[in-house]
Design a protein that fits this description.
The protein is α+β, with helices and mostly antiparallel strands. The protein has 15 helices and 26 strands. The two termini are about 55 Å apart.
């Protein structure tokens, strides 16, 4: 496959792509090293936080880190939005996603077989300002309200609140007459006393299809360390018997309310002193509840912009190449702060948390909800004496590393694109200029040699440049000049040889004649052997004279052709006449094949010279034809040319010699005969054809049977017949 020099250098310029690949490799190695360093830092921070909180019995006792029960304890969320008591739960977003469902597994009592549609609810409690807010989204197939004529609070659907502090337990009931604004009643310890209305516990009871929603608030000052809620269902209005009780804690059989848990302010104060930028520290209890949290997974600050002009150019180019960067850079969500305001879990269920609560240090990673941001987490156990009471989780996103990695990739790609186009452009320009010089050198060298093998004087490809191409051009020029001189010398050599040999040959011929006459005068019957020698010498002299005559003919042919006159000639009839009266008689043992054309084939030329050229070709065909094979002549007419071919079966001519055989004194005969050949016959044919405005060519022919042959073609301009 032919590949130009320009294409080769263009392909070599692709090696510049190795630089971005090496940059990618280096960046990948650096990224892994930074991640390992970040993991080590997080692990060290987790251990430091755990060491700062270890053996703080007073703190853990005060923050209820012991005797926890997942099925009874209540966890308070830090609510994001301002809660309005209107029975609409939209303002509970996004924390509402963490609401817990209460059903059969939280059943306290039931008068008959429990059905989920009879009573179940969704519940959540949270803190905001000085209040505890809670909602109950209750599924109840039949809502029964309190009768206005009854003083009993528990003969209708109601919600019971149990608060326990250092002074004991207090029970409150919310049992409305109808949907709307409600308040709680404090139940007395003595059953004979009346309940007291507690206006500080307020809420809204909103009925909905298939149940109701209770949204309420309790001042934090009324709360103790424990809290429980119970929802009661009454379905029979005449009997008003509580059929089902479902609560956040089973208060029967002397069970206590669950702990009221939330984030620990004292622990968070300690964690803030250990906080590190762009990291989040959490303390998780044995129930995997988040009990303290500081820090934020904020996006890394923007790296300082470069002020120099080159950096600004790179930055502008980077903005243009953003679509390309997406194929190589790692996409991540930079706006972490907005995501952190979404639903915050009360439980932390990470791989490694259970190992941390079991006393093992671990490192893990996970993807945030966007699926793009990776978070690294180091987990360390938190000890109190010989007991593991919690786990410390230190988290940090890989955004800072990814941002640095992406910037390095972008700069690598940008610089590589610049280098590729700049270097590739230089390569291409160099290849274009180099190949252009080589092509000009080739064209000049080719134009210095004519189609007939002559070399034009002063048309060599000499170059003034001092590089290798200049040296090559000057070398070719010198070589062509030497070839021209040799060709001129060879063409003139025949003429010089004829001049130099004619005089001594005439002397030899005269001496042989005198010797013969002297022998015959001295002896009446000279010795037969001597006379035979003389005859051999005379015959050789005649052959030499014939050769010299051919040389003289070839040397003087160009001058003689100038004096010849051209006339219109029917080449078809002329060939027929030359064949019948000349070639068939001269070569009696040869079978000639020729089909004369039916119409005139007119050319303009000298009949004698055209006959002379055909004589040479026919003689050449007879010399090389295979025995018992014909010599064929074909005459064809084209639009502007007449083609006469002389074809014989025999040895082929090598392609490299097909142009050289028409030069002076060039002979190619694989088999030698006893006739002298100076290589002038085809040279004479070429000279005659050029004088007539035509040309002679040769080609090898192969038939279907595997035979070979040679076809010489004479091309002459066609002349329209005169009317």
């Amino acid at each position: 496959m032919h590949i130009s020099l320009r294409l080769k250098l263009a392909l070599l310029s692709l090696l510049l792509l190795l630089f971005p690949l090496l940059g990618m490799r280096l960046n990948s190695t650096l990224k892994r090293s930074l991640i390992v360093s970040q993991q080590d830092t997080l692990n060290f921070t987790a251990q430091a936080v755990a060491a700062a909180l270890t053996n703080r019995s007073d703190l853990f006792d005060r923050e209820q880190f012991r005797a926890l029960n997942q099925s009874r304890d209540l966890y308070l969320f830090q609510l994001s939005n301002i809660i309005q008591l209107d029975g609409n739960l939209d303002d509970w977003q996004p924390e509402i996603a963490q609401a817990e469902h209460f059903g059969k597994e939280h059943l306290i009592s039931s008068e008959e077989s429990y059905l989920p549609e009879s009573l179940s609810f969704r519940h959540m409690a949270g803190k905001q300002d000085k209040y505890l807010y809670a909602f109950f989204d209750v599924q109840d197939d039949q809502v029964i309200y309190r009768s206005r004529n009854s003083l009993r609070l528990d003969h209708s659907d109601h919600v019971q609140i149990v608060i326990e502090d250092q002074n004991g337990q207090r029970r409150y009931l919310i049992s409305p007459y109808e949907p709307g604004w409600v308040s709680a009643f404090l139940l007395p310890d003595n059953p004979i006393k009346f309940p007291v209305n507690e206006q500080r516990i307020q809420g809204v009871w909103k009925q909905k299809p298939g149940g109701y929603i209770l949204e309420m608030r309790i001042p934090l000052e009324l709360l103790g360390s424990k809290l429980a809620f119970t929802v009661a269902d009454v379905d029979d209005e005449p009997e008003r018997i509580v059929r089902v009780l479902i609560g956040t804690a089973n208060l029967g059989a002397n069970q206590e309310p669950g702990w009221l848990l939330g984030t620990s302010q004292p622990i968070e104060d300690i964690l803030r002193s250990l906080d590190r930028p762009y990291a989040r520290i959490r303390v998780v209890d044995q129930n995997q509840r988040i009990r303290a949290q500081v820090g934020s997974l904020r996006k890394p600050e923007n790296l300082p912009a470069d002020a120099d002009q080159f950096a600004q150019l790179i930055r502008r180019l980077s903005e243009m190449l953003q679509p390309l960067y997406r194929f190589f850079t790692t996409q991540f969500a930079a706006e972490i702060e907005l995501q952190e305001q979404a639903s915050q879990p009360t439980e932390l269920d990470l791989q490694g948390i259970k190992e941390g609560l079991a006393g093992k240090h671990s490192l893990t990673s996970y993807l945030m909800e966007d699926g793009q941001t990776e978070v690294l987490a180091a987990i360390a156990p938190l000890h109190e004496k010989d007991k593991i009471i919690a786990a410390v989780v230190v988290e940090q996103t890989t955004n800072s590393i990814l941002a640095l990695s992406n910037r390095m990739i972008e700069e690598t790609i940008t610089l590589s694109v610049l280098a590729f186009f700049l270097g590739g452009g230089i390569f291409f320009f160099f290849a274009y200029r180099l190949s252009g010089r080589i092509r000009r050198l080739r064209d000049q060298a080719a134009s210095a040699i004519t189609s007939d093998g002559h070399i034009r004087s002063g048309n060599g490809p000499a170059k003034r440049s001092g590089d290798e191409l200049g040296d090559l051009g000057r070398t070719l020029d010198t070589m062509l000049e030497q070839l021209r001189q040799q060709i001129e010398h060879r063409e003139k050599m025949a003429d010089n040889l004829e001049h130099e040999m004619r005089t001594p040959l005439a002397g030899v011929a005269a001496s042989l004649k005198n010797l013969k006459q002297e022998q015959m005068r001295q002896q009446e019957n000279p010795p037969k052997q001597i006379m035979e020698y003389i005859r051999w010498a005379e015959r050789d002299v005649q052959r030499l004279e014939g050769l010299l005559t051919s040389i003289r003919e070839a040397a003087s042919l160009k001058n003689a052709l100038v004096l010849d006159s051209k006339e219109p000639l029917d080449l078809g009839k002329a060939v027929s006449m030359w064949l019948e009266h000349g070639w068939k008689l001269a070569f009696s043992g040869i079978d000639f094949v020729y089909q004369p054309p039916e119409e005139e084939v007119m050319v303009e030329g000298d009949p004698v010279r055209l006959h002379q050229a055909l004589d040479k070709l026919v003689e050449n065909a007879v010399s090389f034809h295979l025995p018992d094979t014909p010599v064929e002549l074909r005459l064809e007419q084209q639009t502007d040319m007449v083609i006469l071919q002389v074809i014989n079966e025999g040895p082929s001519i090598e392609p490299a010699l097909q142009q050289q055989i028409f030069n002076s004194m060039t002979s190619h005969r694989p088999v030698k005969d006893d006739r002298p050949h100076m290589g002038l016959g085809l040279y004479i044919v070429r000279t005659i054809m050029e004088h007539h405005g035509g040309k002679v060519s040769v080609r090898n022919m192969e038939d279907e049977d595997g035979g070979s042959g040679v076809a010489f073609s004479l091309s002459l301009p066609k002349v329209k017949p005169q009317l």
